[in-house]
Structures are given as structure tokens and as C-alpha cells.
From TrEMBL:
Keyword Iron-sulfur on entry: yes
GO molecular function, one term: oxidoreductase activity
Keywords, comma-separated and alphabetical: 2Fe-2S, Iron, Iron-sulfur, Metal-binding, Oxidoreductase
InterPro entries: 2Fe-2S-bd, 2Fe-2S-bd_dom_sf, 2Fe-2S_ferredoxin-like_sf, 2Fe-2S_ferredoxin-type, Beta-grasp_dom_sf, Diverse_Oxidoreductases
The UniProt record lists the keyword Cell membrane: no
PROSITE patterns: 2FE2S_FER_2 (PS51085)
Chain ranges of the 2Fe-2S ferredoxin-type domain: 4-80
Pathway(s) annotated for this protein in UniProt: Alkaloid degradation; nicotine degradation
Pfam families found in the cross-reference section: Fer2, Fer2_2
Identification of the protein by name: Carbon monoxide dehydrogenase
Length: 159
């Protein structure tokens, strides 16, 4: 194994650490940065529980090396807040619309939805479903998750 110094801006804080060259970004986020909202689910990109934003784009951090994020900006669920420290609209909408049950998939779902809303601020229900594709929830059946994303976009949620 080769050790290398990796410097990543995570949620606005620069973290520089020497890690093994094979260290995954999810382990850097959890073990080095101590941010545990990013979950480890499958290690195969199948579930999306580890989704974070890298330079604003949704990435499954279980298949990205920390070295690949060197010098980049990473946002986790902990870093998703408004400028004034208020709860992010997605986090609030997930609570309001009951978009979670066990909560295991929620951080990854919210991060995938944040990326979607950055690219498409007023998505249709179908676009939301496509945008969160690859993030699995075994509890909710997705209806309330889609409602939460639509709500967070400022659109009317069909009842």
C-alpha cells in the first residue's frame, strides 16, 4: 500500500490527511472527517446510501477513491444547510412529507435530490423518479420521497 496526502474541502472545512491509496471517499468522510450521516450500504453502487455531492454532482462515495476527490469540494448531509444555518428545504420537506421511515437511505436520497434540484429546479414527478434512480428505499415505496422533492422545489404536491 502506498500512503498519500489527500486534501478535501468537506462542507466548507478543509481536511488534509495521509491515507492509503485505496481509501474510498466514504471511509474518508466517515472515518477521517467523522461525518456519519453518509451511510455504507453495499459497497457496489447498488443502494445509494453513500451518496454525496462532489463539486455539486451526485456521487456514490463507495466507489470513488479519496484520492480522486483530492482538491475538490464534497458536501454531505451534515453540510446541507442554508446560508443562515436554517434547515435545508429538502431536509424539511422530507420530514413534512414523511419521506423517510427507517432513515438509512435518507442521506443518500436527499443528496441525490439536491443534485437533481440544482440541475432542474422544477422537476416533474417522473424527473424526480429518474433523478433518484439508483438510490434504493426498502421502506417507503418512494411516493412520499417524490412528494418531498416536489415540495422542496416549491411546487404544489398533488394530493
Amino acid at each position: 500500500m502506498t500512503a498519500l496526502r489527500v486534501t478535501i474541502d468537506i462542507n466548507g472545512q478543509t481536511i488534509s490527511e495521509e491515507v492509503e491509496d485505496r481509501t474510498l471517499l466514504v471511509h474518508f468522510v466517515r472515518d477521517v472527517a467523522g461525518l456519519t450521516a453518509t451511510n455504507i450500504g453495499c459497497d457496489t453502487t447498488s443502494c445509494g446510501a453513500c451518496t454525496v455531492l462532489v463539486d455539486g454532482e451526485s456521487v456514490k462515495s463507495c466507489t470513488m477513491l479519496a484520492a480522486q476527490a483530492d482538491g475538490r469540494q464534497v458536501t454531505t448531509l451534515e453540510g446541507l444547510s442554508d446560508q443562515d444555518g436554517q434547515e435545508h428545504p429538502l431536509r424539511a420537506a422530507f420530514k413534512r412529507r414523511h419521506g423517510l421511515q427507517c432513515g438509512f437511505c435518507t442521506p443518500g436520497m436527499i443528496m441525490a435530490a439536491a443534485s437533481l434540484l440544482r440541475e432542474n429546479p422544477k422537476p416533474t414527478r417522473e424527473q424526480v423518479r429518474e433523478g433518484i434512480e439508483g438510490n434504493f428505499c426498502r421502506c417507503t415505496g418512494y411516493q412520499n420521497i417524490v412528494d418531498a422533492v416536489i415540495d422542496a422545489s416549491g411546487q404544489e404536491v398533488d394530493q
